[in-house]
Fold each of these.
Amino acid sequence: MKKLIYLDNAATTKTAPEVVEAMLPYFTEYYGNASTVYAFGEESKKAVTKGRDTIANALGAKPEEIYFTAGGSESDNWALKATADAYQSKGKHIITSKIEHHAILHTCDYLEQHGFEITYLDVDENGLISLEDLEAAIRPDTILVSIMFANNEIGTIEPVAEIGRIAHEHGVLFHTDAVQAFGQVPINVDEMNIDMLSSSGHKLNGPKGIGFLYIRKGVKIRSFIHGGAQERKRRAGTENVPGIVGFGKAVELAVANMKERTDKEIELRDHLIERIEKEIPYVKVNGDRVKRLPNNVNVCFRFVEGESLLIMLDMKGICASSGSACTSGSLDPSHVLLAIGLPHEIAHGSLRLTLGADTTKEDVDTTVDELKKIVAHLREMSPLYEDFVKNEAK
Amino acid sequence: MYSEKVMDHFQHPRNVGEIENASGVGTVGNAKCGDIMRIYLDIDDDGIIRDCKFKTFGCGAAVATSSMATELVMGKSIQEALQVTNKAVMEALDGLPPVKVHCSLLAEEGIHAALWDYATKHGIKIEGLEKPKNDISEGLEDEDY
């Protein structure tokens, strides 16, 4: 098999070998339940404590403010539904944005069906929310602002600290979905005025099936999963000890070499963008050029459809993703691309390439070389391109 | 996700291109949904389809169904071409995933639209052929990048 070029690290990442190695003993050797009395279970408890400490340190949080979950979607569901439940006597209004992950947007749909009112903030052409819009949207009955730290499709990083400050000035809680950002950009929950934060292990070279919700001390939200007394009685279920160990290790690695790794990614990212813009005509780079995740490239190729692009890249061993309708299983292209104002047919031609720690310059160059050929081939086949060329000739 | 036949027609699409001064051209689909198909037909005086070409903006299934549809109508009479239904195209491709079945409708509509164009140009009526829906312009906005 030819070399795989994996450029879909926003979807999931390779579990780092060091992470797997750290996890292994907790499957077969120290498999005890962390909630038991005997000394054998103590090993598991220690491992959970260590993982929690590492993650809390990385965020400037206290260990008792980290609640392990099964992943980002659970954390988002918990933050929204439990806040709605706990604070509904104060009000039933929640503010979010139009470009959130579906774990937020579909939870908001659910809450709307249960009597809550949701304001979806618009974003500008780069995917940034407006702080003025946010402030204007806050009402006396607003109980929560939930805005993502960085967008999963276009990589735009939102002004999180300012969002948190505005929410707090009005006595409103602030939750952020940091699934894409944690491990990629420095985060400090105090400096950034964050009350709740969602994260997932497998996005930063940790294992799948583990995540956490950071809940600032004093935020009175209750259990989402009922049962045993784990996680300070707020999230029942036997601790996923290997998952927590792996997540902790992944965070340790991500934080330790963040600067070095992201500097390299930014260089490759900008090289990739530059080559695409220079060598392929009729393209548009989506997302903010500067306030952008180090590993995210999102481009629309006019007159070309995204799924076709993905299949042809796949045949060259390149893994990527697209916001076209055909890849979402619906008739509409990505809500994020529509929210930044792209017309439908341009949004259908989007391609997301997300780099990882292992991505090389050679990978990036091979990808652009292949893309040039593929885009030219698909345009040759495209009636939209045919019309465009004929119009230009007039 | 796709059958071998679909992948074959996607990777090596038959009859891609344009026909100059074609007897009939039909463009169907909707840029909003991400699928647009254009079929060119060259029909001789005996009403036989001598050549057929296509251009498609769309997913793998849309490209493969276009390609297969051109193969199925090539050399056929107009009445035979009308029998090339979306079901026939799908069967010839060994099936499509359920979410992609709508792509095969486009192939049938594309052929019908091209035949309608031919009939209109020649002032004839083709038995069993209805005026195609044409929503090609929907969602198309002129923007310059």
Amino acid sequence: MKQPASPHLRRLEAEAIFILREVVAEFERPVMLYSIGKDSSVMLHLAQKAFFPSKPPFPLLHVDTTWKFREMISFRDAAAQRVGMELLVHINEEGVKRGVSPVASGSSVHTQVMKTEGLRQALDKWRFDAAFGGARRDEEKSRAKERIFSHRSTTHAWDPRNQRPELWRLFNTRIKPGESMRVFPLSNWTELDVWDYVAAEEIPVVPLYLAKERPVVTRDGALIMVDDERLPLAPGEVPRMEKIRFRTLGCYPLTGAIRSEAQTIPEIIAEMRASTTSEREGRLIDHDESGSMEKKKREGYF
Amino acid sequence: MLELAQASSKASLATQAEQAPALATLRLITCGSVDDGKSTLIGRLLFEQSLILDDQLAALERDSRRHGTDGENIDFALLVDGLEAEREQGITIDVAYRYVSTKRRSFIIADTPGHEQYTRNMATAASSADLAILLVDARKGLLTQTCRHAAIVSMLGIRHVVLAVNKIDLTGFDAEGFAKIVADFRAFAEPLGFKTLVPIPISARHGDNVSQRSANTPWHRGPVLLEHLESIEVAEDNSGQPFRFAVQWVNRPHLDFRGFSGEISSGSVRPGDEIVAAGSGRASRVARIVTADGDLPIAEAGDAVTLTLADELDIARGDVLCDPKHRPEVSDQFSANLIWMSDDKLLPGRSYLMKAGARTVPVTVTELKHRIDVNTLGELPARTLSLNEVGLCNLATTTPIAFDPYKANRSTGAFILIDRATNATAAAGLILHGLRRATNIHRQGLNIAKIDRARLKNQKAAALWFTGLSGSGKSTIANLVESRLYGRGVHTVLLDGDNVRHGLNKDLGFTEVDRVENIRRVGEVTKLMTEAGLIALCAFISPFRAERRLVRELLDEGEFIEIFVDAPIEDCIARDPKGLYKKAIAGEIKNFTGIDQSYEPPQDPELIVGRDGQTAEQAAAKIIALLVERGFIDKIDDLGDDWSI
């Protein structure tokens, strides 16, 4: 493995490693939320570094909405095998029984049931007291004020007005029984930092990030990839082949692709520097209204 | 013109790929009074660096029409003020972090609130920043807030300041007004010891001197803001700093590897270097510097590494490894500035948790010397600290800790206090120095120990701590127990709340602060009594859990026996042996437990008595039985329980 390129990245890496170690030293049952995206890939890589020569002393958890791209699921299983960590997968079976899906129920119900409620169920089921997430402060306005160690009540609620101040590197990790902490080691990273680090450290990412001819349809102005028969086509709707890639990977009918020629990580970085839209532009769930992410977070969405 | 600026900065971003930033990331904060334009300035910087993207700009235009304060124009502040509530109120209520990269440097900007009640957030942001931009409204000049923020910035160790005199357009670009503000500020900031202080006249709204030199201020000879931020060197000369390494986690994958993981706080280290564990003074040498990318020949401040040592030392999380020739202070008493961050006031004498480096230990504020008026830097007398107040204190920890003065080392000189009941972060602390009395007064080794004194009396020392509401029967039961113990030939002493207040504690009242001090003193006396080998019976309302825990921690393991005398308040009021409830309910007595001050019942007491109509005699019998069972006193079979009365 190579050393990260710049002093800027080295500082971000050291900070993330410090946070990972602090959680392992201070909590009883930590877990790393693994969502298969590029941020998760970076977090998983940092965990290998933080505890070397030990293995990271916590499992990975994937909250599967059953609407992930097939390539994501195979990448997930391969990644867990490669690092030799335990992978827990949780599906909100109750939601599946109720037939909740982004197609039938719409994006906000699907996200609430399969993601937010699914996550809560999983954390309660295994009684985790700390969960690493790959969220970054540069993603969205309400996340700019999120703490690195973010306290959650026994009902997983986040109270933005009552956050603990974070001074120096002295994180207050105290919680009461039943409460938990969400921890974000990549808080201070930008989207560009993540890609620069992926390039410098040669970290594997899901191939969907790289441009390729893929079957798509256009819906509400977004390019939706037809991954398999889970996406019902409207009458007269015919998938066409286009060279596309994804900037962010969510549930597949909710994640729009972009037309792109970038087939390597350096080409992605070059394309990003010239880009004029933000990363979450492709995520249909953020568009409901301004402030929608903050509402989801109060309810326990990551 | 705005389009032009955007186009040209996009061109500069395109060249960014080929050039790595020349200087390390600059962490900075913006602060100033309400409406000085902090958020607008950051929004302007983001906009001019083309970091506002098309979809964000569309959302911004939509929001500007809805919430904006700038008429038809784009309100840049809306881009930065994230949470819905503050957008509605029009103020920034928390710290927001923003990330800006130019071709020369990366920046992490903390936008901090100017509103008075949120000063703690400013201190939070300042704790990890290298430079502060202090905004002043050119029309208003220096405000109390400006001075307050400059003082906090200085206290938290920021050495580089930009005085951004904003809204200069609204004074008609008045050079003389600018010069006066600069002169006023220099006079105030003189004792604050800033290394650089650069004044710049700007207009955040229109962009004057933000990233482009303004034609409107030909009299300004200094740098423009962005140029200054891109070029300032803030890295202190670290090569001279002594080596410090706080062990975060013991890395033990198998029996043949024992490493200590952590981040180097200051200085540097190489394999073969001598080190000592600061607390124990035990020495060894660094064997390897282990990382996932291979062993390193040297590691420096800021590197996250795993060290292995040549010898097996007993080292755990929280230990500090250091250069044997330049060791940190090790003491259990020290002096520090506290910035209070909680709605619950500081209670001197109460036990808090202190987190310093990777170590968390119980601590008490033994003395609040004075409060510091951060507007004037003057000293004010004080008995407590409230939210956003700053004070100079002496503190005592239960075990010695290793530290450096904050001025010399921002990572080994800082700590936070945590409220043990709520887990809230109660205060930020900056260590000034260890106290000589702790460093020089070593405990006298005594020939005769507590156990010897107790053995002579054929008993084990203990403290029976009776807690409960006034009138619950604490003194009655304690008296009964003492009589029975006396009858068994046990050596005792009884400390009673009312009696102690006639002598030792006659200077104390019944406020929260005084109640805490009352129990702290009684705790110390109790400790002396157990040292004498006695069984001390202590009858005190002692309404707060934290103080009862403090006494428990003063004594040896197992010595403190908490007895909760749990009579219902209705019974206490009905009994009212001293007529106090009557007065309290009538409002003649303030701070009366159970009436206008809370009682925190024990969560896990050794014994509960007084419930379900249990008489004082029955309660006393239960207590004697417990003492026998735990081996404090001998079992005497042939004496009936009522023998002594």
